[in-house]
Amino acid sequence: MNDASTLAKVPRARRSKAIAAWRELKKAPWSAWFGMIVLTGYIVVALFAPLIAPYGESEVVSPGSFDVWSAQYWFGTDQLGRDILSRMIYAARNSMGIAFAATAVAFITGGLLGIVAALLRGWVDQVASRLVDAVMAIPSLIFALMVLAIFEKTEVYHIILVIGFVDATRVFRLTRAVAMNVVSLDFVEAARLRGEGTGWIVRREIIPNIMPPLLTEFGLRYCFVFLTISALSFLGLGLQPPTADWGAMVKETATLFTYARDDFQAGITPLLPAGAIALLTVSINFIVDWFLHKTSGLRDGQ
Amino acid sequence: MLAARDAMHPILRTVLQRLALGLLTLFIVSVVISSLVEMLPGNFAKRILGQAATPETVAAFEKEIGLDKPALERYFVWVGDVVTGEFGSSFTSRVGYQRKVADLITPRLKNTLFLASMTAVIAVPLALFLGILAALYRNSWFDRMVNSATLTTISMPEFFMAYVLMLFLAVIWQIFPSLASVDHDTPLWERIYRCTLPALTLTLVIVAHMMRMTRAAIINLLASPYIEMARLKGMSKSRVIMRHALPNAWAPIVNVIAFNLAYLIVGVVVVEVVFTYPGIGQLMVDAVRTKDMPVVQACALIFAATYILLNLTADIISIATNPRLLHPR
């Protein structure tokens, strides 16, 4: 196989893939469509937060605290007189971005280590697997809490690295398991006998073959990471004020619950950021569920 | 030695192997937990006592809580303490006034265990029932409805569900108290009443997981050839389930239960904070905030040990009930 022939094949393969993807999309169930539309909406809001939000992220717009819902402040203001709607919009950017970074860290470290462990076997695999077992024996929220206790003040990159590292163990497990199946196949052996380097084998033979389960896992992992970070922020140990975060906003506005009988709008205000989290994770789960059905269905058919 | 091992029953040997593996994991976990404290930046005693503390007070305080010894020695002292049921003293101790971590933890642990077992009693039978039903009538409207509903509850943060329940069942219709404050002489019925909302939240969280996993396990089982065979013989549906499917289903079901009880541990932290329930989860969060490392370590170890123990129990029960696992390779 020379370079010219592979290059010539690429465009045609890509076009037919795009068409196939569009055909699949048209057949997608309503839940997957719902998920994709909502997710797109969230991403747009996160990217253009400063253009959409009526006020600044930590701008104090009202002298009082906990103003009621009005045309000026749609969802009222929080305990410091900041516009809740604006903060929710900025929080989309913060929460989603940080969760994405943490998930990416988890996949890069856990995925690579998993592939290496599956390729090398032997003591590298043994040591890595035992260590991962031990870290996995500590529930991820508990582990994160424990590590965050060490730092004097929680910084954003602490959260990304800690959560990324903890979740890397789960990614390691999965990648190692699926890579193990691929590594033992004939074409990998053939590539090795042909004299290809380890890097080439990983890039060209292993990664393309373990992509579907890893993509599904990425979606699910992202949800877990998102929920863990929101839980941390809710507990007051995640993103530090004045950074807006949905989890932290629930905590900050929770006192409004007590007024629910007299003013229902005030009562449901703390549920808005919580609902934003729920809607996002439900949407991603719908997409993943469809994708899972798709890929596992293909496997049954073969 | 070898002869003795060969004479041992294969179940016993597998169980012992699992036990040893569990102990090894616990050992590594304890090393991980204790070494994290060594990475503590800065002088801990100074941070606790404030910048104005004289070197003598710092030294006395360090001696009091054992910070003056080298790391390795401290690890062994800590493990020794843990084995004897002590967890050392809290960093909130002052010279001449020691606060034992064990004294802080014991009442909290009892409360958490109470909440967790109350949840388990409601959630486990409910989830198994729903899961088996959904598996038997899969792809029916019931199955689809339950499937979407559980997928939705799984994806929601625990505090969202907790606050929705609180809003409707405690604030708008004041049926249950919104705060689950209990102490050691709250009578049992009062305790159950006050724990209803937290237990309900946790139930919602784990029923979804448990039900989906039960459904998957049963469907997986129903697809095996011997079930097909039993069905083709003309056996009644209930007999196929009771005689052929269930004996082989115990292992996956037990695994599902153990996994979800372990999951409960994490849910407990958030739910306890929402309802200000005096459990070990809240204690840990408070300790993290005040950087009280011995308490954090002890809580983390308890959580991890529970998790390992649950998985170990599930493993052993699976081995003892599954005929195929009796003869490992």
State the CATH superfamily name of chain A.
Answer: MetI-like
End-to-end gap of chain B = 21 Å
CATH topology of one domain in chain B: MetI-like fold
What's the CATH class of one domain in chain B, please? Answer: Mainly Alpha
As a percent range, the share of helical residues of chain A equals over 70%
Write down the Rg of chain A: 23 Å
- CATH architect. name of one domain in chain B: Orthogonal Bundle
Low confidence ranges of chain A: 1-9, 298-302
Distance from first to last alpha carbon of chain A:
27 Å
CATH class of chain A: Mainly Alpha
| Average predicted local confidence, pLDDT of chain A | 79
Q: Decide which structural class fits the backbone of chain A.
A: mainly alpha
The sequence of SSEs of chain B as H and E is HHHHHHHHHHHHHH
For the biggest sheet of chain A, the summary is: none
Question: Strands, helices and their partners?
Answer:
The complex is a heterodimer of chains A (about 300) and B (about 325).
Chain A: H1 3-27, H2 30-47, H3 49-52, H4 84-120, H5 122-136, H6 140-150, H7 156-183, H8 186-194, H9 198-234, H10 246-253, H11 264-268, H12 271-301
Helix pairs in contact in A: 2-4, 2-12, 4-5, 4-7, 4-9, 5-7, 6-7, 7-9, 8-9, 9-10, 9-12, 10-12
Chain B: H1 2-7, H2 10-38, H3 44-49, H4 55-65, H5 71-83, H6 101-136, H7 141-155, H8 158-172, H9 188-194, H10 196-222, H11 225-232, H12 237-274, H13 280-290, H14 293-321
Helix pairs in contact in B: 2-5, 2-14, 6-7, 6-10, 6-12, 6-14, 7-10, 8-10, 8-12, 10-12, 11-12, 12-13, 12-14, 13-14
